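Incident review: delayed structure delivery

Summary: a single-chain prediction request sat in the queue longer than the usual turnaround. Root cause was a stuck worker, restarted by the on-call engineer. No data loss occurred. The affected request and its eventual output are reproduced below so the record is complete for anyone auditing the incident later.

Affected input:
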Amino acid sequence: QVHLVESGGGSVQTGGSMRLSCTASGLTFSRYVMAWFRQVPGKDREFVAAIARSGGNTWYADAVKGRFTISKDNAKNTLSLQMNSLKPEDTAVYYCAADCRIILSSIRLPAQYEYWGQGTQVTVSS
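Output delivered after worker restart:
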C-alpha cells in the first residue's frame, strides 16, 4: 500500500522560509515522477513544482519560480520543497503527489497523479 506523508508546514511571516518534506512508502520511489500542488478553499488544486524520476529535471509554476526548489532523494524515499521569500499568496494546503506513468505534457495536471498525501498547511502572514 502506497503512503505519502507530508511534514514541515506551519506559519511564517512574509519573506520567511519553510521546507516541506514528503516521505513515501510502498512504492519504488525512483520510478516515480513527484510533484507538489497546493490548494486554498474554494479554488482548484494548483501545480507548484515537479521533478523527474531521477531528479535530473524540474518544473515550476511561474508564481514560485526562483523562490521554491524541489528536490528528490531516491535513497531516502523523500521529496522536499524549499520555499524562500514566502508571500501571503503562498498560503495554502500543500500536497505531494506521485505517478509512475505520467507524461511530460501532463505533469502540471493534478488528475494525472495516482497517489496523494494528506496535505500540510502553510500560512504566510503579512
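Verification: The mean pLDDT is 97.
Action items: add queue-age alerting; document worker restart procedure.
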